[in-house]
Design brief:
With 590 residues, the chain is an alpha+beta fold. Helices cover 26% and strands 29% of the residues. Strands 4, 8, 9, 10, 11, 12, 13, 22 and 25 form a nine-stranded mixed beta sheet that branches. Helix 2 crosses helix 12. The structure holds one RNA strand of 77 nucleotides.
RNA sequence: CGGGGUGUGGCGCAGCUUGGCAGCGCGUCUGCUUUGGGAGCAGAAGGCCGCAGGUUCAAAUCCUGUCACCCCGACCA
């Protein structure tokens, strides 16, 4: 490959585009790789297209290596199959919908579980056919409420999605592991810095799930990492260590109901308790009972109360992640109004004085869950289920018994690791890959069975795996740049070597000659042969474009010397012209 | 959906308060000079000032409406 800057369809920009905030967006536009076509929709120019293909090729090679087979589905899909799984409605406004001339409904595919499942069902029938892994690299459409950050989160983007089909759970586990390994190889080759974190399965349904996150301050995902073991998880999926069990209930006095006028919030309650009732408590000693509502698909909303320490907020995303596919939402005032027994701001789980079993919420028939931070035996200050009154010394296991535990609190820096008990730190990241074991949701929807050796049907179990290909380009740019421009990893770079002919005498001629010889040796060459362009402009463009190796044919040429530069290290070496070809090849091989 | 902001040559922006020939930098074109860190001189092309209506002798500027885009949040792979 030989690209000449004199004819290359490329215009670099001296200034950052006004609508760009994040580094990758600014740089990809300035370097002339992409241009915005509409909100969240981008066109790829020649250099950008090359980089994008390079990333896709790495993904493709690693998928093929592990035995997956490439296919290609249309992006324009009929409504029916999405109707069968309920996703025509479940996906909501995020789905791009359109009608054909006859008025029939179509959609632009946001992901392709349905189509893959149907294709396998159409072709395969015997247990002898399985397992199989299929994938495609294709354009996806999601009408995001707010696309942002350029290529990082678009409405049209390129994704590699693959799907595994196995006869049993063991097989699924194996397919999952194959993907995990392939993803590790892929992201290593892409030169990405990433973490593998436990995740929830999101809208896809299913069980085991991990995300590949590229740590990045502008990322949209928040995840925790343990400071001592290798535990890492999305905050939606995190498991925290429970605090050491509190003192046994026998040492705690009986429940005491106290007047606490005008204390509907935790702050006012703590202040009042300490001032008027001689207690010495903090928000963490209070038990906050948050009224939520849940809904199973196709059913009515049901109230749910969740108890968390008063210094914590309830993280709805985290709850939803664990309850999937059940929806969770904050209860409205109208919802509360239907239960007069729920006194807003003064809700407590304990039963009437002296009754250990049941408790107030059980009497109302409302499900009550607590965060594991509310340990058995722990004592709390909480609502007394009467306006302006609270109860102290309310002990879990003595005065109330929740229906179960669920990780509900918002995770904080310094919370403890559920695996080893050490401190957790919180970081931001961008999701570049996601693997999960779908199970039989889609196989059930389409009755995807294989005939077993005993002539009985076996329901197939599936896995679903994605890599954001176009997003990966942006993430690489995000992680690999400096104040002068992009710094591409070699395998992804638009070229192996960027030859700059500075323009005087025969410098451009020699540059072109070197370019031809390097191309003949199998290198991908970009040569700046523009006449009448000053050296400063060419150097700046070379640094902006970020090709890993540069060869400058300039003022040293008269003495038979050219300059070899390394973009990443920033080094410059004067080398004899006669050695230039071999030295460049050596540099590109390292 | 809530909050904030912006729409003016290809790109980045000023002008708007206080109405009076549409400007600046970069880029582009022509000529000459220049060629190791975003060159110089001379000349040139290029804009329905987002759109619609209104006020006025006169609107980029004031008023009304509308559309679009960007940012934060909500939401969402």
């Amino acid at each position: 490959m030989l690209l000449r800057m004199s004819t290359l369809f490329l215009r670099t920009l001296r200034e950052d585009p006004a609508d760009a905030e994040v580094p990758s967006h600014k740089l990809l536009v300035r370097a002339g790789l992409v241009r915005r076509a509409a909100p969240g929709i981008y066109s790829w120019l020649p250099l950008g297209k090359i980089v994008l293909e390079n990333v896709a090729q790495v993904v493709r090679e690693e998928m093929n290596r592990m035995g997956a087979q490439e296919v290609l589905f249309p992006a324009l899909l009929p409504r029916e199959s999405y109707e069968a799984t309920g996703r025509w409605t479940e996906y909501g406004d995020t789905l791009f919908r359109l009608k054909d001339r006859k008025g029939a409904d179509y959609l632009l595919g946001p992901t392709h579980e349905e189509m893959f499942t149907l294709m396998v069902k159409g072709e395969y029938g015997s247990y002898k056919d399985y397992p199989v892994i299929l994938y495609q690299i294709q354009t996806k459409y999601r009408d995001e409420a707010r696309p942002r950050a350029g290529i990082l989160r678009g409405r049209e983007f390129i994704m590699k999605d693959s799907y595994s089909f196995d006869l049993d759970d063991e097989g699924l586990k194996h397919s999952y592991e194959l993907h995990r390994e392939a993803y590790i190889k892929t992201f290593d080759r892409l030169g990405l810095d990433y973490k593998i974190v436990f995740a929830t399965s999101g809208a896809m349904g299913g069980s085991a799930s991990e995300e590949f996150l590229a740590p990045c301050p502008t990322g949209e995902d928040t995840f925790v990492q343990c400071t001592s073991c290798d535990y890492a998880a999305n905050t939606e999926a995190v498991v925290l260590a429970a605090p050491t069990p509190a003192a046994t209930s026998k040492e705690v006095p009986d429940v005491k109901v106290l007047d606490t006028p005008q204390t509907p919030t935790i702050e006012t309650l703590v202040a009042y308790m300490n001032e008027h009732h001689g207690l010495s408590i903090t928000a963490a000693d209070t038990l906050k009972n948050v009224v939520l509502k849940t809904r199973k698909p196709g059913e009515d909303w049901e109230l749910l109360v969740v108890g968390v320490p008063g210094d914590r907020e309830v993280d709805l995303d985290r709850l939803e992640g664990q309850l999937e596919p059940i929806e969770v939402d904050q209860a409205d005032p109208e919802d509360l109004a239907k239960h007069p027994g729920l006194v807003r701001g003064y809700i407590g789980p304990q039963g009437r004085a002296g009754t250990a079993d049941g408790g107030h919420l059980a009497e109302l028939g409302i499900r009550y869950l607590v965060d594991p931070l509310v340990t058995p035996g722990s004592a709390w200050v909480t609502g007394a289920n009467e306006q302006d009154r609270h109860a102290a010394y309310v002990v879990r296991g003595r005065d109330f018994e929740p229906d179960g535990e669920i990780g509900a609190v918002n995770v904080r820096e310094g919370d403890r690791c559920g695996r080893c008990g050490s401190t957790l730190t919180i970081s931001r990241g961008i999701e570049i890959g996601h693997i999960f074991q779908l199970g039989r949701k889609y196989a059930d929807a389409f009755s995807l069975d294989a005939l077993g050796p005993d002539a009985r049907p076996v329901r197939i179990t599936m896995g679903s795996y994605g890599i954001g290909v176009s997003r990966a380009v942006a993430v690489i740019a995000e992680q690999s740049h400096d104040e002068r421009g992009l710094v591409w990893p070699r395998e992804i770079a638009p070229a192996d070597v960027h030859i700059v002919g500075t323009g005087k005498d025969n410098q451009i001629e020699v540059a072109l000659d070197l370019a031809a010889r390097l191309e003949a040796r199998g290198l991908r060459v970009l040569v700046d042969d523009r006449a009448g362009v000053s050296p400063g402009v060419k150097f700046n463009d070379a640094e902006l474009l970020g090709v890993p190796t540069a060869l400058v044919v300039g003022r040293g040429l008269a003495q038979g010397v050219v300059e070899l530069r390394d973009r990443k290290a920033g080094t410059k070496d004067e080398i004899p012209l006669a050695e230039a070809v071999d030295r460049v090849i050596a540099a590109c091989a390292s």
